[in-house]
């Protein structure tokens, strides 16, 4: 078995795949694809993933892209035991799948405010008019967490990884208005306390915040 992950540390979806690999205790080879130098658009990478996106995973001769699909595949293929990141019970898995879809929407809502592309490449700022979208998303988190200890159930699942991802990005502009969301704050603290969290996220988040803040200063 040779798992090979094509990614870059600054990419939030890439980091969620890294978290899944580490949670499952899987060894893998890293291949850094530098998006800032256009390596994802070069012919050699487009042969691997025609969409020109990271992350992308190669498992021997099997290649899969899209972070949620990659993480689901890894769990389907390699996860063992009863307390699973991706449950096998259809109803439990359905709940995880549902929130994996929701996480795309919450990501869009928060990114509309953070405006990463605009800040890094077009000299723009966070879009203050979109603060309301952030609060709408946080209302969803608080609602889910009023029912269960984690975002999709009382145990840790892939849904937690992908719902945590956009929340972590709110640190780029320094957003910290969580006073009305105590359950969300406590849940995110549990995610950050996972033994593989820093190893999976610290470098990428630090680099991304540095780039973002430097662009704002300019």
UniProtKB/TrEMBL annotation:
Q: Note the SUPFAM superfamilies from the entry.
A: GST C-terminal domain-like, Thioredoxin-like
Positions of transmembrane segments: none
Superkingdom to which the source organism belongs? Eukaryota
Using the record's annotation, list all stretches that form the GST C-terminal domain.
Answer: 89-215
User: Per its UniProt record, what Gene3D superfamilies does this chain match?
Assistant: 1.20.1050.10, Glutaredoxin
Q: Where is the GST N-terminal domain?
A: 1-82
Q: Name one Pfam family in it.
A: GST_N
Identify its protein family: Belongs to the GST superfamily.
What does the record note on quaternary structure?
Homodimer.
Protein name according to UniProt: Glutathione transferase
